[in-house]
Amino acid sequence: MPSPDEPRLALDPIDAARENWARHGWSSAVDGMGAVTSIMRVQQIVLSEVERVLKPFGLTFARYEVLMLLHFTRTGALPVGKVGERLQVHPASVTNAVSRLEEDGLVERSPNPADGRSVMATITDEGRRRAVAATDQLNELVFAAWPLDHDDSADLYAHLKQVRRAFRDFA
Questions:
Q1: Annotated domain spans of the chain
Q2: Which CATH code is given to the segment(s) 61-130?
Q3: What gap in Å lies between CA 148 and CA 23, rounded to an integer?
Q4: How do residues 15-61 score in pLDDT, each as one tens digit?
Q5: Whole-angstrom Cα distance, residue 25 to residue 12?
Q6: What is the 3-state secondary structure (H, E, C) of 99-147?
Q7: DSSP type of residue 60
Q8: For residue 25, what are the CA distances in angstroms to 15, 19, 52, 63, 77?
């Protein structure tokens, strides 16, 4: 997680925003605004930390996700469109990520034998090695170092899953 030498703000700006919301008569939205703003800030912090850990592997989080999805498949291959569906990202973003992974020798693209109109992405042996090595570092430096204990992490996961379901992220 963040280095102890990094400068920290003396006051929480989201607390200040909550006070401003209340002072301006938006009391019914204070908790929601605080939660949404906190989620957005935590996302920035966590993504920054994940990207820092992945950088020595020549990966971004988007490319790492593609590698891990392919790594977990039975054959190590999926149609590029299916990769986008499973990762819930725009087709152009998946195409870009797969292209960069291909340039780095971590993924190979080929025509889909089941459907000549689509393209398959297949993880290479080097892609698997790099994905596993990156995962070892993420597990050690980010996931296992998460600042909440098991019960709090499980509760947070359940609450965020409830929010995701409410926004129709999944059935």
A1: 12-57, 61-130
A2: 1.10.10.10
A3: 32
A4: 999 999 999 999 999 999 999 999 999 999 999 999 999 999 999 99
A5: 21
A6: HHHHHCCCEEEEEECCEEEEEEEEECHHHHHHHHHHHHHHHHHHHCCCC
A7: -
A8: 16, 10, 41, 44, 54
